[in-house]
Each structure stands twice: as structure tokens, then as C-alpha cells.
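Hi there,

I know you've been waiting on this one. I reran it after we fixed the sequence typo, so this is the corrected version. Both the input and the resulting structure follow.
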Amino acid sequence: MASGLWVLFKSAELLVDGAVSLAQRLGISSLVIGLTVVAMGTSAPEVAASIAAAVRGAGDIAIGNVYGSNIANLALVGGLASLINPITVKKTTLLREIPAMLVVALILWPILSDLRLSRQEGALLLLIFLLLLVLTVLTTKKNNKMVISRETDVSSQKDLSLRKNIIFIFAGLIGLGLGAEITVRGAVFIGERIGLSQAVIGLTIIAVGTSLPELITCVVAALKKQDDISIGNLVGSNIFNTLLVTGIAGTVSPFSINARLIGADYWIMIGISAGFALAIIVGRRVINRIEALLLVGCYFSYVAYLLIFNR
């Protein structure tokens, strides 16, 4: 399993490096990069892992991965990044992207309430994802007044050629598929040997492993005080996980899930998402270190709950 996580991590790095460099060459703002390219790149491990799980008939791992990754992104990753450097959130992001994240999470409940994700429901989630992605990009670009010029980007960064951008992206995608399969096999083997259910395996081991790219990206962004990249990556990744990861997994291979995944685990994910938004509001659009500690504490309390009440 460790080798699978390593391949996932390195492949995600290649994908993000290539995609971000390509986006910057096109003059896209950091918020747009965070919400789209970076978020999609760091969510690629979740996509690959959930597809691999769905194909193997492990629906609990596929959905558990989505829930666990969303919780880890906001509570663990967001909390740790804010501990390093408090994250400032733009007013437009608080009023637009964060509510969108909460709404798409709530959409999952009626879809999964019958304990099954059909191919049609998966396709519906993908359609919502595409519409939201187009709307987000168009709206953000329209309101963005800090457009990055091509000349500044190309001259100020370690330039990657277009060919290298494409090679990085494709190499990352191929590696993610391989790493996901290794991770799923290893996690299932270890989890079953120690008595964990598939739902808990997806909610913990795989969720944390596939959230490593978000963690590294946000930590680096926090160190460089690139708040738009951090918040865009966190919010965008959760939207992608909920719609894209779930949608693709269901479209590729319809699956059934355990009742617990529309019960306490689902509402914990909703509660963490709402708590993240509340932390931003209470901090007047800044996630301070006190709120960050509370978020990290909530995450470890959640893990303890999973291990104590494993079923």
C-alpha cells in the first residue's frame, strides 16, 4: 500500500506541476488556477482510487473515499495550512464557491438514499459538475481584475515548455491509475487483516492517502502566502470529489453502498463542511490559528470515532 501511495503522490505532483505551468502560460489568475487546474489535479487520486474501487465492486470504499477526502481536505489539510499561515478568503469566494460546495454535498443524500448509485445518477452528477465548472470559470474570469500577463509569467518562473507540460500531465494521469490500483489492493488487504470494514478503509486509509496532494499543495501555498491557491484547492477539490469522483465511479461501474454511508458518516461530512464555512465567517474571512486547531481537532476526533465505533 505504501508504494501505491508513493506513486499516487509523485504522479499528482507531475500532473499539478504540468497543469499549473500550462495555465499560467495562458494568463489565468491564481484563484481560477486553484479552483480548477490545481483542484482537479490534486483530486485525480480520488478519481482513480474510487474508479478502481467501483470496478472491483467495493462501493463502500468508493463513496467512503469521497466522504473521507472531503473531511480530510477541510479539517486536516485546511487546518494544518492555516496553522502555518492564517488563510484569508475573498468575499466573493465566501458568497459563491463555498455555498456551492455545501449545496453539491447536500445533493448526494437524495441520490444515495436508496443505497445504490446507478449509471444514470452518475451521469447526472457529471452533468452538474460540467455546468458548475463552466459557470465558475466564466464568473471568476469576468470578475477577476488581477489578470496575469503572459510576458510576466514566462519571464518570472522556471519555464516549462509546452511539450513538457503535456508530458507531465499524461505521465501523472498514467501513474495515478497505477498507484490507485496498488493502493486499493493494499488498503483492502491490510484493512481486512486488522478487522476494518470497507467503509472505514475508504473513510480513513485511502481518504488520507489520496488527500496527500491537497495537503502538500496547501502547505506550500501557505508558506508562500498564496491564499487563493489554498482556498481554491480546498473548495474546488471537495466539489470535484462530490460530483466528478462520485459521478465517474458510478458511470463506469454502478454500485451499492452500506446504510452507514447515508447516516452518521454523511452528516459528519456535512457538519465539517458547514463548520469550515463558519470558521471563515467567525474569523471575518480569515481562518486563524484557533479555528485551525479546532478543525484539526475535529478531524482526529472523527478518526477516533471511526476506529472506536467500527462496524
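Quick highlight: The first strand starts at residue 87 and ends at 88.

Best,
R. S.
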